[in-house]
Amino acid sequence: MLSSTAKNIYWMGRYLQRAKSTARLIEATQRMALQSRGEEAAGVALIFGMEDEFRQRQQQSSGRLPNLIDFLVIDENNPSSLVSSIGAARRNAREERNNITVDVWESLNGLWLELSERLRGNRALLDRGALIESVKKQAVMIFGAAQVTLLRDEAYNFLQLGAFLERADNTARILDVKFHVLRPDGSPHAQELDYFAWSEVLACIGAVRTYRRIYRSALDPMKVAELMMLRRDVPRSVHHCLWMVDQSMRELAEAYGTRGEADRLAGELHARLRYARIDQVFDAGLKKFLGGVRGDIATLSEEIGRQFLLD
């Protein structure tokens, strides 16, 4: 496969996953803003690593949460906004029409046309909630179309690689920022817990009911962290995502007949999450552990670029 083709499909997967994750995060932030002092905006910007950019937008008008919503939903100057992410995914997909199915293309193109139509109107009257909900649902449909229609070849593996690498990084960021906002000392033990705040941490990855099914107990910070990091059976956990990344790398290695540094890093990262124990993670420090994982995800992304995408 040409490196340009691999690059387009890989980044299509990353941008689609970014849009889907952003939509969920905004929904959870809006719900928490109704019950708190409105301090969620800075935390969400921190998750995306865009605190400085958000502060600059915030200085231009009053109010916190509305600025955040516009910054993350309709701001074309923000590369992580919903509009920017869907637009970038659609451009990548358009370049590779021969390597994706009609179902995938029509679902993605239809979402872009819907967003474009909404944005052509008066933005002051734009229903942000409906737009966010549409992106969340349509992104699920696009990934669903890919799962049931794409040929299991290199194109599929690069799409999976991009999507799961983006998802792993996103989940690690959410857990790191939101856990330490609620528990600044990093300890999972507390006399009293804010039930709604911890529920919204799980809602960011759509795992509130999943937590209840697995643990059948009251919310506990250590168990929340374990679910988001170490449970391989939770589709948005860091462990599950890195397992899928490692699997995709193995299939690409079989297709190309060679292995490189990216393959070694993917296997090492997966093994770290596979054999980690939550009590040992907290003994060493959750922030330190997540910082190491996030740093190695970034390194793996760079190595994938060098090994396959000629970056």
From TrEMBL:
- All copies of the DUF403 domain together span 1-309
The residues forming the signal peptide are none
Pfam families with a match to the protein in the record: Alpha-E
The source's domain of life comes to Bacteria
- Name of the protein in its database record: DUF403 domain-containing protein
Highest classification ranks of the organism: Bacteria, Pseudomonadati, Pseudomonadota, Alphaproteobacteria, Hyphomicrobiales
